[in-house]
Design brief:
alpha/beta; globular; binds 1,6-di-O-phosphono-beta-D-fructofuranose
Length: about 550
């Protein structure tokens, strides 16, 4: 079979990703220097009790010099959860890092996400295999999945399959949920003296797996640049035709990091931020009124067009909806509900069991949105917000309100709206230079962590606003990021999601500028990601990270 490769992919294959200096100059067998014992972000006692072997591990930073790892290692890797640009480079970095430790090292890729580990479906990588995927987008090298590994039997199966291949290290490339599972697996392996070590790599376009030590999750840079390019193109179209309001929903399951980043890159007329909606306890009606006010104001200035950015998870952050959805999640976890076959029966069961306030919130929503809210949760208990058409809901409600105002003579404009959803378009884009370098470094660092005998860590590459040679490589204990949250109707230990901080500099920048962006157009057209050209264009990180790090 011939495989046709685009000219860009061909040229891009030759790109050599940059590494932190300590790894570029010393390889992956480096000195692992340890900091003080750590604590979890919250619920210390519960997390310590649940993870007695991995709680309190120190932060690890790699230093120049020769480490103790010189034996060949057999390592397994999985891609877990939603696609994010750069996953292939994590695997390439891991492969190169392992080979650098010892040329006899082997890397196995388990297929289709976590289920590949339990079902023992794998491939063994070699140079030709890896070379075909360097610097490409997608997760097609081994596929991904959302199966949740949390039961002892599943862990035992994973260990059995690893042992059969002589695997002593596993790398989980995933987001907060997948790395929560990685933490549980690491603990299980340690408690049962299995000899298998587990290390994670921070992936997700959503940008919500970050903290003081993990400055960014990979894929956020490329995905938000793809969306910003498209938003810029739409802004230019809107500004040319001057006849449509464009409501653009942007991926990012809970946190609004992508919407905020895209707003900072493109200066839309309105950018909703879910975390602000929640903090201000805004009702759906208030959100709609705020948007309609801007539409009215622009109409008075003879501008019947504009751009509204809507974060994917908005609905879950509107307090009345949040409460309703949390009750809904618990009801949908009820076996009785799951045995119901008919949609009407499900609807009746929900309507009867919801509290009065939640039933009212549920009933204000159009039937289509109600049905979308009752769709299956993902295996981690999350509402599949990418399938809820919030952007259409807002268009309908804003349109209704403007019609009311028109009838009262309070509005004379013309509201004609288009809806868009940008999500899947950005998840498999060819990684930007930042993501290509960052991902390769994360994978290489994971090899160094396993070489140094570490388990229960997330690969960490810090100082990323500086040039790559100044990046700092190391590992952060997974337990350090954990807290207790309610999932599937039960209290669970999970990695804490990093939401947009309203007192943080990126949101504050938006807050200062948005009144003027609303009316005096200041659209910015970022254009497509550039892979060749000046570093000021090609290597620039996101606005969020630049603003966060001054
Ligand atoms: P991860 O958290 O696994 O990285 O996935 C993020 C995401 O892209 C969200 O932004 C989106 O809501 C969701 O995945 C979509 O999931 P699916 O690919 O299952 O439709």
């Amino acid at each position: 079979m011939t495989i046709t490769v685009s000219p860009l992919q061909n040229a891009r294959a030759a790109y050599q990703p940059k590494l932190p200096k300590v790894l570029a100059e010393n390889g992956s067998n480096v000195i692992a220097s340890e900091g003080a014992p750590t604590q979890s972000v919250a619920d210390n006692d519960s997390i310590r009790r649940l993870f007695p072997k991995s709680y309190g591990l120190p932060v690890v930073t790699f230093q120049a010099g020769k480490g103790k790892a010189d034996q060949a290692l057999a390592v397994g890797v999985i891609l877990s959860g939603g696609q994010a640009p750069g996953g292939h480079n994590v695997i390439a970095g891991l492969y190169d890092g392992l080979k650098k430790l010892n040329a006899g090292s082997a890397l196995y890729g388990f297929l289709g996400g976590p289920s590949g580990l339990t079902e023992n479906k794998y491939v063994k990588f070699d140079d030709t295999f890896i070379n075909a995927y360097r610097n490409t987008g997608g997760f097609d090298i081994i596929g991904s999945g959302r199966t949740k590994l949390e039961k002892e039997e599943a862990f035992a199966k994973v260990v059995e399959n690893c042992k059969a291949l002589g695997i002593t290290g596993l790398v989980v490339i995933g987001g907060d949920d997948s790395n929560t599972n990685a933490c549980m697996l690491a603990e299980y392996c340690a408690q049962h003296n299995t000899g298998v070590r587990v290390v994670g790599c921070p992936k997700t376009i959503d940008g919500d797996l970050k903290n003081e030590w993990i400055e960014a999750s990979f894929g956020f840079d490329t995905a938000s640049k793809v969306y910003a390019e498209l938003i810029g193109n739409i802004e230019r179209d809107a500004n040319s035709a001057k006849k449509y309001w464009h409501f653009i929903k942007l991926m990012g399951r809970s946190a609004s990091h992508i919407a905020l980043e895209c707003a900072l890159q493109t200066h839309p007329n309105i950018a909703l931020i879910s975390e602000e909606v929640e903090a201000k306890k805004m009702t759906l009606r208030q959100i709609v009124e705020d948007i309609a006010q801007v539409v009215k104001k622009r109409a008075e200035a003879k501008k019947d067009f504009g751009i509204v950015l809507v974060p994917e998870g908005l609905i879950e952050f509107i307090p009345e909806m949040k409460l309703m959805m949390s009750e809904l999640n618990d009801l949908m976890a009820d076996p009785y509900f799951n045995n119901l076959k008919d949609d009407d029966d499900k609807h009746q069961f929900i309507a009867k069991k919801l509290s009065a306030g939640s039933a009212q919130a549920f009933n204000t929503l159009p039937g289509a949105i109600q049905r979308q809210l009752m769709m299956d949760r993902d295996p981690h208990g999350n509402v599949q917000v990418s399938r809820i058409e919030t952007e259409k809901l807002l268009i309908d409600l804003v349109g209704d309100l403007l019609n009311e105002w028109k009838a009262k003579g309070q509005y004379t404009g013309k509201f004609s709206a288009q809806n868009h959803f940008f999500g899947y378009e950005g998840r498999c884009a060819a990684p930007s230079n930042f993501d290509a370098d960052y991902c390769y470094s994360l994978g290489y660092t994971a090899a160094a962590l396993l070489g140094a005998g570490k388990t229960g860590y997330l690969s960490s590459v810090r100082n990323v606003t500086k040039t790559a040679d100044q990046w700092v490589a190391g590992g952060i204990p997974l337990t350090m990021m954990m807290n207790i949250e309610r999932r599937h109707g039960k209290e669970k230990a999970v990695i804490k999601k990093a939401l947009v901080e309203l007192d943080g500099k990126p949101f504050q920048t938006l807050a200062q500028k948005r009144a003027s962006w609303a009316v005096d157009d200041d659209y910015v057209y970022p254009g497509p990601i550039q892979y060749f050209g000046p570093a000021s264009v090609c290597d620039r990180p996101t606005e969020t990270i630049l603003i966060e790090h001054g």
